[in-house]
Structure formats: C-alpha cells, structure tokens
Amino acid sequence: MERLDKSVASSLTRFYIVALCVVAMLTISGLFLIRRTINNLNHDSRMVNVAGRQRMLSQRLTKLAILNVGQMKHSDSTQFSALLKIWKDSHENLANKKLPVENGLVTWKSAALDSMFLDLMPVFDSIYLNFLLVNDPIVAAPAKAQALSLILEKEPLFLAKMDKIVFQFDKESFQRLENLERIEWILDIMTILVLFAEGILIFRPVVNTTRRVVKMLTESENALQLSNQKLKEANNQLLEAQNELLRVEEEKYELQLAEDRIRASALIEGQEEERKRFALELHDGIGQMLTGLKLHGEKLKSVQFHDEKNQKRFGQLLALIQDIIQTTRQISFNLMPSVLSDFGLNAALRLLCEQTAELSGIKIEFDGDANKRIEMSRPMEIGLYRIAQEALNNAVKHANADKIKIKLEQNKNRIFLEIADNGKGFLISNLKSEEGIFLTRNGMENIRTRTQLLNGEMEIISKVDSGTNLIVRVDL
User: Fold this and answer.
1) Gap between the Cα atoms of 300 and 288, Å rounded
2) Domain named Histidine kinase: which ranges (predicted)?
3) Beta-ladder partners of 470
C-alpha cells in the first residue's frame, strides 16, 4: 500500500512538473510573440513616419520649385538640393525594403507594397528629373517652367499613391496585431487545457482529503475574485485606451483638414499674386507698347499712299492694333481689376456685369450700391470677386440664360452675395459624388474652396428649367 502511494505520488509529481513546464513554455512563447510584435510595430511606425515625411518633402520641394521658377523671394533657408537628396534617398530606401535605424536595418516582405512601389517609381522618377531641371542654373527659364508644369501635374498622383502606401503599411501592422491576438487566444486555450488536464490527472486523486479540498476551493474562489477584479480593471483601461485612440484619430483628421485648408489658401494666394503681377506687366508693358504703336500709326495715317489698297490695309492695321489694345486691357482687368482696389467690391462687380453683358449680349444686372464701399479685408474682397466672376462665367457658358442678376448687400456684420439666372438649371444630386463632396465641375469646386477659406457658407438652389441661385454668406 505504501509502495502504491509512493508510486501515485511520484506519478502525480511528474505530471505536475510536466504541466508546469508546458504552462511556462506557453507563457514564455506568448511573451516572446508580444515582444516581437512590439518591435515590428516600432519598425512599422518608423516606416509610416518616413513614408509620411515623403509627402511633406514632395510638397515642400514643389513650393521651392514654384518660388525658384517665379524668382520670388522667400524665407525658406533650406537648400533645395539637400531636401531633394533626402527625398530621393528615403524613397530608394523604402523601395529597396531597407530602412536604416539606430540598431541596424528594418526590412519587410509584402507583395502588395512591392507592387505599389513599382507602380510609384515612374511617377517619382518623372518628378525627380523635373526637380533637377528646375534646380539646374544652366537650364533656361521656359524649360524650367515646363518642368514645373510637369511637377504640378504629377504631384497629386504621387501624393495619392504615397497615401495608399501609408495605408498599406498601417493595414499590414493591424493584420500583425490580429495575428498576435489569434495566437494569444490559441496559447490561452492551450494553457487552459493543460490546467484542466492537471486538475483531472493530479488533484482528482486527492479529493478524499476534505480539508485540502475545502482549502483549495477557498483559494480558488479568492483567486477568481482577484482575477475578476483585475479583469474589470483591465477592461476599464482598455476602454480608456480606445477613447484616447479615438480622440487622437479625431485630432489627426482635424489637423489634416486644417493642413489642406492652409495649402489651398497658399495656392490661391499665390495665384492671385501671379495674376496681379501678370496684369501689371500686361498693362504697363505690352499695353504701353501697343499704345505707342497705335500713336505712331496714327501719325503715319496722314501720309497719302499711292495705292488705295495699301491705304485700306493700313487702316485695317490700325483697327487691328486698337482691337489688340482693347483685348489686352480686358485680359488685364480680368486678371486683377484696378477698380476693385480703388473703389471696392460694389464698383468692381458693377463693372464686371457691364463688361460681361457687352461681350455676351446677355442682360446682366447688378443689385447694390456701387457708390458705397463696404469695408472688408483685401483677401475677402478678392475672394468674393472671384466667386462672382466664376459663377457669372458658369451662367454665361452653361446656363443658356437670357437674364443674370448679381446682388451684393451687407446686413450688420454679414455679407450676402447672390448670383441668379433664369437658365436651364440642373439637379443638385448631379453636382455631388457618392461621398457628398462637390465635384470639380463648372468651377463649383473653386467656388466651394474659396467660400471655405473665407469661413463662409454656400448654398445652391436649382431646378431643371427653373434657373439657378448661388448664395454665399460671409461674416466680416
């Protein structure tokens, strides 16, 4: 009997040691997987940061290229060549799947990422070569301008593809987390099975000892309560982490919207400055030369030609010069009307209506006090004028209207701008995409962007065969 008890005790001890080793092995395996996944996530965050920085460097290089080609002064002291080298080296590191870090190199294996980088390479090479042309002092100005045009054409595609790559990095990181979670579940189940087998094979033979069983049940109950308390605390911490993650994502989204708005504002401001410069060059340069040419021609008009045909051709030449002068003045006015800065938005809109009506033959009315200047900031004046100009051009070109009306009024600290026509109209649903974002159609995207930059509101009222009303409200 004693020998049998010793044999049972020895067997129980062996089973117990084996069970402990299995549990320890499962626990160590779980810790190893968690540690490995954390390292991978750290590497993933490094790759996402580098990929995101590529977008920023591309935009910054584009900005410097625009300033370089336009020969405009700026406060950005960063060397173009240095930024371009960092941009190129980072892209090659990402494309070659070897990203330098402090403790070596980060590598990854992903057919999807390889395909994305392969698809991105022609776009990157095209932009990089054009950046080199823009930065080359030997290249002529027209070639630089053409290179800049290609850069601006390719940059949105590059940014879109980089966004997909960043999202793919994030997606693969999330998949690795899911795999870890599944493995953890498997390890937990295996641990539970081992513990269950341990209870069946080891502790069941000693159930006859009542005191020990009662003690074991008491300890198990206390352990269960403690585990429940820890589980409750862990759940609370998980909820807090989820809420914090949601808050960070919301802040990231708001930051992205603010970045997009600032970028759009900078682009529009640059366009306005370029229009102003070009208008001055037309007016003060080409316009003055054409006027001088006309004066010389009128002096020669008194000379009698022997051939009547030559006399007639000379008169046609003077008429053509006058038409070119008028066209140049009209282009200069459309680019940056001087009446806007001299007399304000009311006077500029009235003159815009008169000139457009004369050119198009459509009856265009202006409802507002042209002799009264509404005090507002210069960017707001330009923005509202461009909105009215874009909407009026849309109505003239696409509405098939015979009457258009522009109304501008001030109600306390709010400006109301309305452009109405009696044309063919359209369905509002046709103006929106499935996501509810205005399509780039008939200048509506430009109008919407300018309204947002003015912190204003835009409303479109239109029905088929019933005309269209565009209303913009802006606070002073």
Assistant:
1) 19
2) 277-476
3) 419, 460
Q: Give the side-chain half-sphere CA count within 13 A for 86.
A: 15
List CB contacts of 272: < 8 A, sequence separation 6 or more. 336, 382
Per residue of the chain (476 residues), give pLDDT as tens: 445 455 656 666 776 677 678 777 777 876 776 776 666 666 667 777 777 777 788 788 888 778 777 777 655 546 778 888 888 888 888 777 776 655 555 666 678 878 888 888 888 888 888 888 888 888 888 888 888 888 888 888 888 888 888 888 778 778 877 887 788 788 778 778 777 776 676 666 655 555 665 777 788 888 888 888 888 888 888 888 888 888 888 888 777 766 666 665 565 666 665 666 565 555 555 656 666 666 666 666 666 666 667 667 777 777 777 777 666 666 656 666 777 777 888 888 888 898 888 888 889 999 887 778 888 888 888 888 889 888 888 888 888 888 999 999 888 888 999 999 988 888 777 665 433 333 445 578 888 888 888 888 998 888 888 889 899 999 87
Strands 363-367 and 403-411: parallel
Closest CA to 368 of 343, 391, 386: 343
Is the whole-model pTM more than 0.90? no
* Among 312, 332, 411, CA closest to 368: 411
Which tokens sit at 198? 């341990």
Rounded CA-CA distance 277/292 in Å is: 22
- d(CA 228, CA 220) in angstroms, rounded, equals 12
Q: How far is CA 121 from CA 13, 147, 459, in A?
A: 64, 18, 42
